Every structure is written in structure tokens, then in C-alpha cells.
């Protein structure tokens, strides 16, 4: 494997020494470009009290290209599809090499706090969200409880 | 074929078939455009397809003199301290004033036109930047 750019080493060190509240990101032993990530659901959102697992991969062209981020935990959200793919501008057209792993994960956390059904990735979820917001939020809460509850994660880890 | 001959032929085509055979008309019309201008247009079209900034833009960016670089500042693309390099090549975007390693920025600008830090579209101020810089470079290039 080619040597790891200094930037990735610095980012990784800072993620450990100065972690973002509610977010953890640890590189995989065998591949320092692959991170196991957890994000706590923001308070007062349907994802509150949930802990979501994600994977983050830094492509060879990083930071000229955005990190690839995907939810591993099932989640009911209009901008996240069944495969865990995320519809977020900074991961696509609005990526900038001055952004970092840290800022990307903060954006993902912010997306949990403010779902945007008008720019959907999961079309059926977005439709439900627009038709019956209250019902959709209830479903999101149930899924959080069922798939992302802190208690479950502790017992399985 | 001289311009007068081309014009005569065009008139003849229009008289015969109006705008029917547009390929011939376009071929003839293109002969009226000076070759240097045609090349310039083709270059511009090729650059527009590329999405990023033209190389001439990146080359024309003002350099930050070593004496003006603060010891603590680093490039926000590679995170390396500018003064780690004995001969730092740091450029400043003329409009927003953000600094980057020339090497890092030129890779980014090969596919984008926005400042990594503030997203300012650097080509939207291009006219004012380019003319002044290009003249300067030509002056140097002649004897450099």
C-alpha cells in the first residue's frame, strides 16, 4: 500500500485526541483509509437515544475527492436509502478539499436533525414524510428503537 | 479562396436553395473567420468542457513572498506547514485572499473553479484578473 498522506495521519490523530461530541471514528487496523464510525442521534430528533454505525472510506484521490460514507445501521430517513447511501451535498457536488472527516460527519449528524424530504434519496420514505410527517417521525422513532438502541449495541459488542 | 469569392458562393447558394444545405453554408462561413480566432474559440470550448480552471489562470495567480508567510500557517488542503519547504510556492486567490500551496490548488482547480475555503467562484472575476496578469507575464516572457 502506498504511504498514507500526512493529512490523513493528522486528521486521524485529531479525531482521537480531540473527538467530536457524539461522534467516534476509528481507522481499521489493516486499512488506515477505512473508518468505523458511530454517530449519536441528535436530541429532539426522531433518532434521539440511538447510536448509528457507519463506514467511511477515503479514496486514493482524497482530499481532492470526497470520502465515501454509508450507514450500516438501518435508519428511516428521507435522505438515506435502504443500502445506507446518503444524499448530502458535501459528499457530492459541494465537496471541497478544505473539508475534513470531522466536518463531513458533523454534516451527517446535522442531516439527522433536519431531514429534507424535498431532496430525497429514499423516495418512498420521502413521500410518507411529506404526506404524513407525524406518522413518518413515529416510524423513524420506532426504527431507532429497534435497530439503533444503545442497549442493543452494548450487548452485541 | 478569397473572402469575395466565398461571399459570392454564399449568395449563389442562398439564391438557389435558401438555407437548405447548412453544412456547405457553415463550411463557407467558417472560412470568413480568421484561423487564429477559430483556434482560440476551439480552445475556449475545450476548456469549457473541462469544468476546472484553465492552466493559464492557475499560472497567473499571485505568489505570496516567503517573508509574508507566517510560521504557523499551513495549507488547508495538505495540512503541511508552508515553511517546512525552504522554497514555499504559495499562491493567493486575488478575490477572496485565501492562500494555498500552488501544487495542491492546481490539482483542485483542474476539476473545480471554487475556492476550497469559501466556495467563491474564482472564474467569475476572471476578466479583471487575467488581463493585468497576462500583460505582466508577456513582458517577462519576452526576455526571461
UniProtKB/TrEMBL annotation, chain A:
The UniProt family comment states:
Belongs to the ubiquitin-conjugating enzyme family.
Is Heme included in the keywords of this UniProt record? no
| PROSITE patterns per record | UBC_1 (PS00183), UBC_2 (PS50127)
Q: What is this protein called?
A: E2 ubiquitin-conjugating enzyme
Q: Which molecular function terms from Gene Ontology are attached?
A: ATP binding; ubiquitin conjugating enzyme activity
Q: What SUPFAM superfamilies does its record include?
A: UBC-like (SSF54495)
Domain UBC core: start-end pairs = 3-149
Q: Where is the active site?
A: 87
Keywords linked to the UniProt accession = ATP-binding, Nucleotide-binding, Transferase, Ubl conjugation pathway
Q: Tell whether Iron is among the UniProt keywords.
A: no
Q: What is its EC number?
A: 2.3.2.23
CDD domains per UniProt: UBCc_UBE2N (cd23813)
From TrEMBL, chain B:
> Hey, what's the signal peptide range on this chain?
none
Specify the domain of life of the species encoding this protein. Eukaryota
PANTHER family per record: E3 UBIQUITIN-PROTEIN LIGASE RNF13-LIKE, RING-H2 FINGER PROTEIN ATL47-RELATED
Q: How is this protein positioned relative to the membrane?
A: Single-pass membrane protein
Is Transferase there in the keyword field? yes
Q: Which InterPro entries does the record match to this protein?
A: Znf_RING, Znf_RING/FYVE/PHD
This protein is called RING-type domain-containing protein
Looking up Pfam families in the UniProt record yields: zf-RING_2
Q: Where is the RING-type domain?
A: 75-119
Pathways per UniProt: Protein modification; protein ubiquitination
Query: What keywords does the record list, in alphabetical order?
Result: Membrane, Metal-binding, Transferase, Transmembrane, Transmembrane helix, Ubl conjugation pathway, Zinc, Zinc-finger
Q: What Gene3D superfamilies does the record tag this protein with?
A: Zinc/RING finger domain, C3HC4 (zinc finger)
Write out the GO MF terms.
Answer: transferase activity; zinc ion binding
Annotated localization: Membrane
GO CC terms of this entry: membrane
